[in-house]
Every structure is written in structure tokens, then in C-alpha cells.
Design a protein that fits this description.
Elements: H1 2-14, H2 21-30, H3 36-54, H4 58-85
């Protein structure tokens, strides 16, 4: 969600652009980057559901959840730092 909020603020308030095709198309349809919030929630919840239902080993399940956390935190942190440094 950190990535979604950073993307929303960067695009709607500071004029940044989205690089990826699907989010860009959805933002053009909705007219705002706020569409990132339900998109991220849907992807995260479905991934967590699949992990909890189909992965039996606790160590692998927790590692997959950690990977999802890191994959969400990294772009959010990059976007936040880009905004705060003005680049």
C-alpha cells in the first residue's frame, strides 16, 4: 500500500508518469491514480489467499509473504525518496 500511496501522490499531484501498461490504462480510464489502491488490494489479497491455501510448508509460506512485502516496499520507497528529493 506504500507503493500505491506514493504512486498516487506522485502522479496526481506532481505530474509523474506511470511506466507499466495495465496501471497506466486503468489510470487513464479512471482519470486518477487512486485506482492503484483497489488494484493493489486485490492483488495482495489474492496472492495471500493462494499462499495460505496452497502452500503447506510454514517456512516457504512465510518466505513468500516476506517476498511480497519486499516487492511492495521497494518501489514505494523508491517513489517516496524520488518525490522527497525532487527528482
Amino acid at each position: 500500500m506504500f507503493d500505491a500511496s506514493s504512486t498516487f501522490i506522485a502522479i496526481d499531484f506532481y505530474g509523474y508518469g506511470e511506466q507499466h501498461v495495465l496501471p497506466n490504462a486503468l489510470m487513464n480510464l479512471a482519470g486518477t491514480a487512486a485506482v492503484m489502491f483497489p488494484l493493489k488490494i486485490a492483488v495482495i489479497l489474492s496472492a495471500l489467499y493462494v499462499i495460505d491455501e496452497y502452500v503447506e510448508d510454514d517456512i516457504i509460506r512465510n518466505m513468500l509473504k516476506l517476498a511480497i512485502f519486499i516487492l511492495g516496499l521497494s518501489p514505494g520507497l523508491r517513489d517516496f525518496l524520488s518525490l522527497s528529493m525532487g527528482t
